[in-house]
Amino acid sequence: MSYMNPLHPPVPSNIHSSYTALAGACSAKPPFAQAMPSTHRRLPQAPLSTVPTSRRSAPCPTVTFDLYGAPSHGLGVPMCELLARSGGALERMLVGANDGVGAQMSGSLGFRKVNLKILWPGYEHLDRTYSLDIHTSAGPLTRGQLAAQIARAFQRFIEELQGYPPAQHGASWRFGNGGIGFNRLMLSALWNVYDDVWLAEVIVDFR
Known about the structure:
Elements: E1 40-42, E2 63-64, E3 77-78, H1 79-84, H2 87-93, H3 101-105, E4 113-118, E5 128-133, E6 135-136, E7 139-140, H4 143-161, E8 185-194, E9 197-205
Parallel strand pairs: 4-9
Antiparallel strand pairs: 1-9, 2-8, 3-8, 4-5, 6-7, 8-9
């Protein structure tokens, strides 16, 4: 008997897409064919203006975040759930929650911390960078621990910027009253742009 996750209803095959909103920001290709309901949109992120012409470290594999029971890969995990659930509950919800992804994120230079860059339409002039610990006293960070750190960074990002109006081109992506709240964000993947800089693939529920 198949299990259907209520957070992600079935998506018709005719709207499957390999597009990623990070295509302009990094050269990596999506590791899966993504499909989304019509009410969901990927967060578009502009290319970074400070990407060096050469890397010090080879690109690290993309880290993905999927719910058990989701109809396809890449639909993401609600960030509010990542912060609300305990370790045991997170293990039952997130595929590969205990995988030690921090080891693969260290790269050839052995990074102990990496930087999460958050870019948001209309708020590009207020972009933020948050440090993520990818090693703990118990060993490399797990996928579940990493997901929670990313969710906390986005929660902080929205709290810091919700008092600022977006530029006109980002009006539909505004925060605050009538705009996008943290509970609308879903974490799909984390991409290594260069060296210790990463961007998150985020899906926003506009319902």
